[in-house]
Amino acid sequence: MNPEHAALIEGEPLPRERVDSFLETPFRGAGNGATSHDEPAPARRQTEPPSVARQRRRWATQVIVTDELARRACADRGLNVPEEVSAASVLAVAETDVADLGSIVAAALAHSPAVRTLLAALEAEQTVPEEVAVRDYYARNQDRFLTPDALRRGVDPFGDTAAPEDLLPYDAVREDIARELRKAAGRQAFFGWLDQARGGVTYSHGHEHPGDPSHPDHEHRH
Q1: Other C-beta atoms within 10 Å of 214: how many?
Q2: What pLDDT band is residue 220 in, cutting at 50, 70 and 90?
Q3: Which residues contact 53 (CB under 8 A, 6 or more apart)?
Q4: Which residue, of 136, 149, 160, 210, has the fewest CB within 10 Å?
């Protein structure tokens, strides 16, 4: 493969310069500090062990590939992708997003308007049956719906001490539950799409997935 290409996507080259450009943009991780892949200052990067630098490039390649795949998916779906204010514009990533999505997808979500647009479209497509899903979630997670007074009194929502008035009414939380379940289903749909879309990607040497066991620096942390 041409060394100027980081990967081929359905036979079309992904320029290595896009990965290089992303590596020059500090990625802001979790809101209160850092993730394992927060970008260090350029001066500190010069002292990194070669294995760390190689893994950073592989990780960045995954972010850019995810961005490119999402751009193509949005174009296929006729979705309008907003432009970034600047090429260096990167959103902060919430700790919960890093935990739930993994740092690669969380970084792609922060970096790429196309990824955010596609994920929002997938979430909007999800249907959450009220009786089967929403009411069941409310019944199985009563600890999440204690009133402030019940929390102060230390009421056990699964014990004999809980009274109906200790719980927020179902009608008051129904929409919040449905929204949360649609979000979870949308993320599941996103991962299913991404796994399938990655099947058409061939990586250049040095740009493989950081968890690929075929190279000596691989790791399974995402």
Answers
A1: 7
A2: very low
A3: 45
A4: 160
